[in-house]
Amino acid sequence: MIEQTTKDASTFVSQVDGAFVFIFGISILFLVGITAFMVYYILKYRKSKNAEATHIEGSNTLEIIWTVIPTILVLSMFYYGWSGWKSQTEIPDDAIPIKTIARMWSFTFQYENGLITDTLYVPKDQAVKLDLVALDVLHSLYIPAFRVKQDMVPGKKTDIWFESEKEGEYEIFCAEYCGLRHSYMTSTVKVIPLIDFEKMTQIDSTALVNNNTVVDARQAGISVTRKYGCNACHTADGSKLVGPSYKNILGRSRVVIQDDEEIEVIADEDYIRRSIYEPNIEVVKGYEKGLMLSYKDQVTEEEFMQLMDYFKYLSGQ
Amino acid sequence: MSEHKHKSFREENGSYKGVFAWIFSTDHKRIGLLYLYAIVSFFLIGVLLGALMKLELMAPGKTVIDPATYNAIFTLHGVIMIFLVVVPGLPAVFGNFLLPIMIGAKDVAFPKLNLLSWWIYVFGAIIALSSLFMGGGPPDTGWTFYAPYAFKTNTNMLPAVLGAFILGFSSILTGINFIVTIHRLRAPGMTWFKMPLFPWTLYGTGWIQILATPIVGITLLMIVGERVLNIGFFDPALGGDPILYQHLFWIYSHPAVYIMILPAMGAISEIIPTFANKSIFGYKAIVISTLAIAFVGYFVWGHHMFTSGMSGTALYTFSLLTFLVAIPSAIKVFNWVGTLHKASIQLETPFFWAASFLFVFMIGGLSGLALGALATNVHLHDTAFVVAHFHFIVFGGVGFAFMGAIHYWFPKIWGRMYNSKLATSGWIIFFIGFCTLYLPMFFLGVTGMPRRYYDYVEKFHGPNIVSTIGSWVLILGLIIIIYNLIRSAYKGEKADKNPWGGRTLEWTVDSPPTLENFDEIPVVNRSPYDYRKNLES
After folding, report:
1. Closest residue by Cα to residue B453 from B442, B438, B464
2. Which of residues 350-369 of B touch A (CB under 8 A)?
3. Can you tell me the ipTM of this complex?
4. Is residue A210 part of a domain?
5. For residue B373, which residues of chain A lie inside 8 Å, CB to CB?
6. Is Transmembrane given among the entry's keywords (chain B) (predicted)?
7. Cβ separation of A177 and B278 shorter than 8 Å?
8. What angle do CA A181, B54, B162 make, to 5 degrees?
9. Is the residue at A100 inside a domain?
């Protein structure tokens, strides 16, 4: 259940919201005040009420007053904005690092023990630092409830930190436009007790994905697709997204484009392996080249076999 | 002889016939109208694309179009509205038509160059729009063309950028033309501080056009170098830096916002004193703030990039400068409202547009404060709040000023009056539609809805419905306004020289003006907004 933000969703919320209240407060005051003046003048000095205008060219006193007052106000807004933001740049030394990887169109999170999840798990009352890596184009990690956002730039390391003081689930959005399925590039951050987080990230992770106990081979395969964000582009029900569906994939013949030539291949185990590790050599006809990146050195042999079991199931084998 | 002299510019065809008498005319008034017809056509296309986006966003999931179409539509909407409509906008239409008349000149300094600017504009527009129909389909990158996505996509991004590059030349040439015209062709006696405020804003705009626009050219050359010669400027795969692209893009595109808004402020500064029957309050303060905006406006581009990964020093420097640029805009608002004090206000359609301009421009400007402050920007950046903010400035500010200007100068341009009641009802419907369309987007942004979203979670549904309904109301208002103006251009009552009692020079010439505007170049010996009765003669 996604929750609304509260003051203790992250330690930044009260500072940022304080700046919001200050800036919006003054802004609304000015908007209402000036509009009221304007409407009052229009009613009072309309031609039917005031046939003769008074000749006034200006007033230096007023010009000075309405230059100085806004200057003081905007400088104080600058200060509020700056002081509320400064703490976001001061990462505590004991912050737990979590490597965050963005690609079109999924986020994955890797913890210190190598565990990878598609949902971000963070401990309560403990600073967390996300090391942000973008593999293809610009993305931006945005957690509205925490008041944090940072662009993820390919070829450049960026980071972001926060500390949540309340257990719960909050939305993660990609805020920087990244192509076709930008608005589907979402995830969830789950704030859990520190003890659970330690349990999760300190034991050997290979048998544990997404906090689910592995029950059968099919479940393992599903977990692998979720772990690597495959489902952002591929479905299990036969419908077409950016990439082909897994349904009935095995043993079918399909037309692929290789070096600008159409060839017919049978989708066997070897083909699936090539499609995951070198996805841009043979591209299924009707799909765009270059959208999928190689998962070499990421998807392990064991995970690949789990995927195969899953695909066999989806292909009725 | 005198018969010939008083033929209006609309009848004076020169040596060409029919449409050629317009598209080959070097008369600044005909060129202004050529821009008007082109810009209004592009604007209507942009409005349709915008309405389609709003329709799609009325409900989560697919409503009418698929995500690929949606992404192409918001890109085209941005490219058309920014590069083809709002940047040329007021300077090209009203600047061309009115600048020479307002400063007492027969034409701009370089009439042939002026015609060339229009042709370059049309050529650039064709190139930009050709991306729709050629190759891999319309670009789907957003009008900002951010690297590296824009360089990876298989759609037609290059023609759109090339179009922007060519349009840039049109903009530079118009800027040069206006600056020289203002320096050299002011009527005898019209010192700098006796010049009306609309020409003043065109002067500030001209400098921005000349100094900022070449950056687009440099950027385009770098893109071509990267795509053709594989030199890594922006693409990290080649060793480039995507943030460098953002810097270059905003070094032009931020000052471009001031290219858009300054002439709008100029038009408002003309309308308000005329309908207040009173000298503008703080003429010099408005002039100085115009120049201050033009100058400081160059140094604030970084506020588009607060979450991009720029250094901390750059962040607070740009934040501080952004707050400084707010001050001259505030000064203008105070002076405009101050003008109404002890005035004698004629409640006519152009004044309603000007007064509502003040309201929407204040919302646009004040919402910019929350975007200029670092802590709040981080939360709001790339959300619907930003979309609402710049639509309040660019569509609210520039759009309302354009509407005010066309209703103000309509009798001068066409020599006829429009139906005032219909014009006022068009205004009120448009105004209500505008607020209904964009105010909910502030709320959406504050609650966290990112921009450029095809689909959204359920909690964003309510405000999106309201916003979509607003778009229909706005379009209804627009239809009434356009119907009224087109009809009146043919069938309206004949207007005399000075239907509103304006004091600037354009109200001393015929409606519509003759080819050379003035029979005799006037001598100016008073301030442009002196409404005292004893001066009338």
Report:
1. B464
2. 355, 358-359, 362-363, 366-367, 369
3. 0.90
4. no
5. 19, 23, 77-78, 80-82, 84-85
6. yes
7. no
8. 65
9. yes
Has residue A211 been placed in a domain?
Answer: no
A166 and A39, same structural domain? yes
Q: pTM for the full model?
A: 0.90
CATH number at residue A222: 1.10.760.10
CATH of domain B29-508: 1.20.210.10
Provide the pairing of β-strand A283-284 with A139-143: unpaired
Per-residue pLDDT tens over the stretch B88-146: 989 999 999 999 999 999 999 999 999 999 999 999 999 988 877 776 678 888 888 88
Distance CA B170, CA B39 (A): 14
Tell whether A17 and A133 lie within a shared domain: yes
A126 is a domain residue: yes
Amino acid at position B7, single letter: K
CB pairs under 8 A between A and B: 269
How many structural domains compose chain A? 2
Among A160, A180, A204, the domain boundary falls at A204
Domain of A225? 217-314
pLDDT digits (tens, 9 = 90+) for B162-190: 888 899 999 999 999 999 999 999 999 99
Give contacts of B146 with chain A, Cβ < 8 Å: 138, 176-177
CB contact under 8 A, B323 and A41: no
**Six token digits for residue A294:** 């190689």
Q: Is B135 near chain A, with CB under 8 Å?
A: no
DSSP codes joined into one string, B425-440: HHHHHHHHHHHHHHHH
In the listed set A161, A176, A204, which residue is the last one of a domain according to the structure? A204
Q: Report CB contact under 8 Å: B330, A70.
A: yes
Residues of B in contact with A240 (CB under 8 A): none
Here the CATH number for the domain that contains residue A87 is: 2.60.40.420
Residues A115 and A227 in one domain: no
With a cut of 50, say whether residue B3 has pLDDT above it: no
Same domain, residue pair A109 and A251: no
Decide if B454 touches A, using CB distance below 8 A. yes
What distance in Å separates residue A126's CA from the closest CA in chain B?
22
Residues 6 or more apart whose CB falls under 8 angstroms from that of B131 comprise B138, B139, B155, B156, B157, B158, B159, B160, B163
Note whether A88 and A159 are same-domain residues. Answer: yes
Question: CA-to-CA distance for B377 and A148, rounded, in angstroms?
Answer: 10
Query: How far apart, in whole angstroms, are the C-alpha atoms of residue B113 and residue B214?
Result: 18
**Residue A31 reports pLDDT greater than 60:** yes
Judge if the upstream peptide bond of residue B512 is cis by omega within 30 degrees of 0.
yes
Q: Are residues A66 and A30 in the same domain?
A: yes
Q: How far apart are CA A144 and CA A163, in angstroms?
A: 14
